[in-house]
Inverse folding.
């Protein structure tokens, strides 16, 4: 059973990340403790990077572990990728993912060094703090006022096979701290979700497990796009989820409708939405297929409050969509 | 809201599977408190037989459990009155989702816990994310299993502190392999069923999101005094069983977007009591379910459902309407406006959300609230044709025996899947071999409608001394059976650990029967053992696999 791993590529090493959201919560300790336990189980473990100052409580853990020291260029510690590749351990521990290597190094960033080790099939156990994650930095900075320069891109974090939030006792939680904690929780849920999707894709499973919401806005010429977008954004913040937007190209649009659609598209893009343009004979079918393959849980669609003859006779496109979208909610916005 | 006493502090240790260490963590914290001189007592600990937990529990004063008489025997539940008399500062009550034995003062343990909190006792408790009522449909999607014992979301949200006890699925699987969670034979069964990495990964993701949501909700609650709720969701209640899912979904969305929520039924009749009994009962049941989830309810009278709903919505500051999927079949030509369309036009400036049925791999799952017959039923029974002769029928039962759960009765169905009669295996064996089944079957069988209450089904089974009862719709179409084992969810839950028993789908494989039975008699004795015997008779208890689960729903599900 353990062979069926949630890894996209089997030759690649596994990446396990200990995520902290405040300093002193003990993520380094947890990481080295795991290293020690793995060693006790007989795994070949080395330490590839230590923090500049090693806390006292970690020293006993280190005594049983082999260390491949970082070298320093202009006072900046750099992982000795060459040495680690030559040594070829099963597991390499990296305390601190977010370092920029000095100019002239093998890679510009430490996470790229790590990527290289992973590609070589070495399992990495690493620690990182929330504030160093690309898309979290600003929010943390707003909260704590501390600014950091180095970041680890979110895309890299998403490739983690396992993520562990290092949680401190909650008793003395300040409000700021619980906000940081919530951010860390949501971030790890998203990383887990990315892994789950990789697994589902690599196993040819289209089924979405509905662990996370995902909204799809259907763009149509007269739809009240701004309202849909505003609602989607607002709800997405609450649900901590993605918003997608798409429209189905129609050859039969009147000039006026075409113009409205262009305006809508322009506005959508101004709003930062990535609008996917879909091709298909039947707009309902096309949208539903797209929604399914992207794990959408809710489709947002506009609906005219005026009844035309076609609708009176055949029912609306929306009601067709509702019937076709089995398993997906349809939220209808009047316009 | 003005209690005279200070309400107790509720702390929940939230996990996503058995073995993540909820109980361990809880006892650890309790020990710290005790060391600081706090008066901590232990009211209940799930008896897993896990040595480390049992050892740790000895450090605490253990309060006696209450014996509850049940079907000629007794079982043990926590003694709320006793605890209140003892008046500890902190009380440990493991397993919040537990259902008390019939005859207890309160049906559910979370109600016991509420009673303790009301009296100012602080409570430490454990639950899994899959026990949350509003997550039921997502859990079904992930695991293929319907959770029966749930905790209403407001209870969870009312917790003063939620601690997520987390390990990675990988680490959990290691624990399982090392035999920390279950004895080896049981661990094997568990790994086949629920302890699959993707399933665990998905459940863990849900648990983490839920914890984040709990934190956010608390932060919002502080601000809320200044900021009134601006959104209000209306849920359209109908007799259709999908209403249960609709209510759960609305509850969830309302909690996330901090909206109010009201469940509305549109009655054609002026007097609610003038409605057909079946419809009335279904609505009442949905309303009970809604109230359980802390959703307000209302009945409004009106001829046209769409008009009436829209009217109510406009008058009551509703911003969003939740309706179920269209139940009327699409008409091909001149089909005009269906209910969805009508509502869209009437709702004008309101958003309408058509909530889809969540299911796994396209099968139609049970959408019923957990307390109805239809929510418990399954189709693991033997079916035979009336034209068969007895000898063939016996051979047929032998053939089907491996695939079904209940071989004590065979159900005689016509080609349209209508139930003609029932015959017990015993009767069949003693019947003349050359006779046709329809000559020997009983036609005066006992059956229940789909929306029969769980308790009523239990009474019926006891009264007629039956091991199972068929569930039929108004036209006698066979929908499934409910067996005594299905009703013994309580027993199943107690007899196994949490994740394995969600949906009451304990795997009763050979080794488990040998190992666990003696242990169980020792540990819980009483009615548990009796119910367990009942299960043994049914050959196997509910053992879902996704494939089997699909097969369960090939019968026509709704012909209303």
């Amino acid at each position: 059973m353990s062979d069926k791993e949630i890894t996209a590529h089997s030759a690649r090493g596994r990446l396990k990340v200990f995520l902290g959201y405040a300093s002193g919560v003990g993520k380094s300790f947890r990481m080295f403790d795991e290293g020690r336990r793995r060693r006790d189980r007989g795994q070949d473990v080395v330490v590839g990077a230590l923090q500049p100052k090693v806390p006292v409580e970690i020293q006993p853990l280190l005594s049983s572990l082999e260390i491949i020291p970082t070298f320093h260029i202009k006072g900046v510690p750099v992982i000795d990728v060459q040495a680690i590749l030559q040594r070829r351990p099963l597991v390499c521990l990296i305390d601190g993912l977010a370092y920029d290597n000095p100019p002239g190094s093998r890679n510009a960033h430490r996470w790229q060094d790590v990527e290289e080790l992973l590609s070589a099939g070495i399992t990495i156990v690493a620690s990182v703090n929330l504030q160093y994650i690309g898309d979290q930095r600003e929010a943390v900075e707003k909260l704590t006022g501390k600014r950091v320069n180095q970041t680890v891109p979110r895309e890299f974090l998403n490739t983690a096979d396992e993520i562990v939030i290092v949680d401190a006792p909650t008793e003395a939680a300040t409000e700021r701290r619980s906000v940081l904690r919530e951010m860390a929780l949501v971030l790890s849920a998203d990383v887990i979700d990315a892994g789950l999707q990789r697994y589902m894709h690599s196993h040819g499973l289209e089924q979405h497990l509905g662990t996370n919401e995902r909204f799809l806005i259907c763009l149509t010429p007269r739809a009240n796009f701004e309202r849909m977008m505003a609602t989607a954004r607002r709800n997405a913040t609450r649900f901590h989820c993605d918003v997608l937007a798409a429209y189905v190209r129609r050859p039969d649009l009147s000039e006026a409708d075409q113009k409205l659609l262009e305006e809508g598209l322009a506005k959508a893009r101004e709003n930062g939405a990535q609008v996917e343009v879909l091709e298909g004979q039947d707009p309902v079918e096309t949208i539903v297929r797209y929604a399914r393959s992207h794990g959408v849980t809710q489709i947002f669609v506009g609906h005219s409050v005026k009844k035309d003859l076609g609708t009176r006779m055949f029912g609306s496109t929306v009601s067709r969509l509702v019937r076709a979208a089995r398993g997906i909610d349809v939220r209808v916005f009047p316009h | 809201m003005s209690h005279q006493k200070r309400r107790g502090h509720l702390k929940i240790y939230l996990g996503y599977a058995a073995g993540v260490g909820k109980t361990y963590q809880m006892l650890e914290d309790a020990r710290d408190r005790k060391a600081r001189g706090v008066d901590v007592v232990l009211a209940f600990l799930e008896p897993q037989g896990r040595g480390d937990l049992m050892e740790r529990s000895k450090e605490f004063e253990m309060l006696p459990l209450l014996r509850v008489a049940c079907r000629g025997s007794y079982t043990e539940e926590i003694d709320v009155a006793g605890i209140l008399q003892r008046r500890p500062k902190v009380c440990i009550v493991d397993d919040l989702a537990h259902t008390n034995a019939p005859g207890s003062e309160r049906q559910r343990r979370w109600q016991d816990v509420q009673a303790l909190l009301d009296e100012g006792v602080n409570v430490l408790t454990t639950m899994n994310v899959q026990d949350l009522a509003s997550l039921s449909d997502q859990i079904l999607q992930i695991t293929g299993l319907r959770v029966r014992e749930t905790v209403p979301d407001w209870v969870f949200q009312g917790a003063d502190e939620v601690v997520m006890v987390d390990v990675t699925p990988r680490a959990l699987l290691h624990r399982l392999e090392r035999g920390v969670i279950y004895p080896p034979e049981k661990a094997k069964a568990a790994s086949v069923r629920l302890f699959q990495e993707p399933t665990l990964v998905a459940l863990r993701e849900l648990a983490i999101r839920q914890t984040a949501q709990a934190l956010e909700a608390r932060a919002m609650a502080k601000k809320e005094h200044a900021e009134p709720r601006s959104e209000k969701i209306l849920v359209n209640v109908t007799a259709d069983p999908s209403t249960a899912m609709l209510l759960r979904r609305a509850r969830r969305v309302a909690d996330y977007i901090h909206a109010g929520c009201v469940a509305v039924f549109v009655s054609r009749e002026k007097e609610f009591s003038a409605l057909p009994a079946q419809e009335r009962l279904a609505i009442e049941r949905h309303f009970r379910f809604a109230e359980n989830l802390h959703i307000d309810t209302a009945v409004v009278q009106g001829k046209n459902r769409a008009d009436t709903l829209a009217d109510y919505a406009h008058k009551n500051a509703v911003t969003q309407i939740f309706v179920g999927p269209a139940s009327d079949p699409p008409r091909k030509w001149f089909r005009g406006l269906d209910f969805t369309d009508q509502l869209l036009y009437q709702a004008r400036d309101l958003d309408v959300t058509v909530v889809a049925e969540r299911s796994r791999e396209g099968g139609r799952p049970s959408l019923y609230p957990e307390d109805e017959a239809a929510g418990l039923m399954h189709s693991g029974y033997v079916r035979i044709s009336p034209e068969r002769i007895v000898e063939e029928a016996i051979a047929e039962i032998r053939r089907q025996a491996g695939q079904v759960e209940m071989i004590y009765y065979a159900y005689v169905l016509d080609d349209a899947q209508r139930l003609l009669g029932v015959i017990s295996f015993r009767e069949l064996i003693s019947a003349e071999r050359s006779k046709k089944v329809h000559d020997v079957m009983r036609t005066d069988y006992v059956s229940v409608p789909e929306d029969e209450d769980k308790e009523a089904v239990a009474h019926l089974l006891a009264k007629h001394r039956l091991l199972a009862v068929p569930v039929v719709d108004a036209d006698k179409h066979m929908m499934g059976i409910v067996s005594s084992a299905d009703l013994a969810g309580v027993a199943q839950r107690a007899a196994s650990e949490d994740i394995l028993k969600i949906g009451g789908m304990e795997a009763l494989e050979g080794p488990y029967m040998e190992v666990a039975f003696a242990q169980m008699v020792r540990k819980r004795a009483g009615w548990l053992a009796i119910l367990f015997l009942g299960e043994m008779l049914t050959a196997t208890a509910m053992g879902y696999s996704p494939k089997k689960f699909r097969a369960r729903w090939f019968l026509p599900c709704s012909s209303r």
